[in-house]
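Notebook entry, structure prediction.
Reason for the run: the old model in the group folder had no record of what sequence produced it. Starting over properly, with the input documented here first.
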Amino acid sequence: MRGGALAFACAALLASRATVARAQTAEPSSGTAGEEVPSENDSEGYTPPAGTAATPALVLGGYVDIGYAHAQGDGTSYPPGDTRLPADYGVDTFATAVNSRGDVASTDSRGLFTNGFLPHSVGIGGRPSFLVNTVAVDLKYTPPSAPLMIFTRLLALPRFSATGDATRVLVEQAFGRVVPFDSLELALAVGKFDSVFGIEYLDNEANIRTGITPSLVARYTTGQSLGAKLFYRLQLAPLWSALSINAAATNSGTFVDALQTPDVSLTGVPVGSVRVGYELSLPTVQVKLGGSGMYGVRNDQSDRSSRQHALGADLRVALFGIYLNAEVVKIDEDAGGPKTNDSGQFMLASEFHGRGFYGQLAYALAVDAGPLHKVTPYVRYEQRHAWFEGFTPLTVDRITAGLRVDLWDSLIVKAEVLVNRELAGAPTVANNVETTSVVYSW
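New structure, fully documented this time:
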């Protein structure tokens, strides 16, 4: 870590001693031993807790994620002197991620044409900078007399660009969930909610994620979208097991909002997605397996004949404080008409194919030393092979290593290094990232 990042991490370790209740506890896959995520999105593997008379009907929660990041070069993956067009078809523009939202240090293509395959940017280029990554406010209402829960998550994302302020206020989630039967773990939700594809969406939020940045394939699987969802989980108690299904019909499927807008359907045809899961929960080991699929019309253009489909498989293992997460994803998109997404309007939605995987290993060491509760070192390896029809296939990989420190019940300090490598299809470029995050939650 460079001096600035280390100084930031050390300062955070000495930060406020005020203790407030966290809005969420961390899931085993995010490095917390023996606990499940009380997700407001009904993630598979979670059994909603029984209500009590003492539970307030209205609950306010949230977190603040403050970062310090430095990306090599100019903060992009564009090699100097490379004049291939579109510029974003020859590199991985998502490689220089600096926070849990996957925002990159820069997307400045130096005036070269791009076709909208771009993430959101924090606008720091190659300069180290402090950042307000996310300010999140959660509001949950549970009527005392109805099997209903209403949840909203509002994000403020302070950002800067070459043209001035680029701050966004985002309604990330807004849905109602009904649990119609006391005897069944069945839930129906309508509104804007997390993806149901794979497992990485469970770590979307900075106060839950073990590390800081998402994987190289998260752009295809972790986006929120607007629609309807069904979740069902069947306990097989004699076998220490459970089966689950999480299915949704939404505007944009599972892509992140930078690639496909989730808030309106451009085609009028919903995208279907589903995950089928199996859980084995023994006293000393927990194993979760899943298979996912997504199929529908591309929601970055209006041609109903242009389809997209994805397949995935995932694995989670928790054993004596050691946590292994792994996921593989295959994505294909047909060519379509004029493209519309968060980057603007473009003349063509190109045919696209992507293959990728990641594996993350973490060890959560519980500590009882005053404010220090837990120390979690982790390492992740990932690889992505993708190509646009008619362009050179691109293969990249990344090695991510980091450390998470939990202090009191409401302060998390993280430091992370990303080593990005161009394996084939693009010139090698200096685009490694050092990033630090301090998360206060309530």
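Summary: The first helix runs from residue 3 to 13.
The old model has been moved to the deprecated folder.
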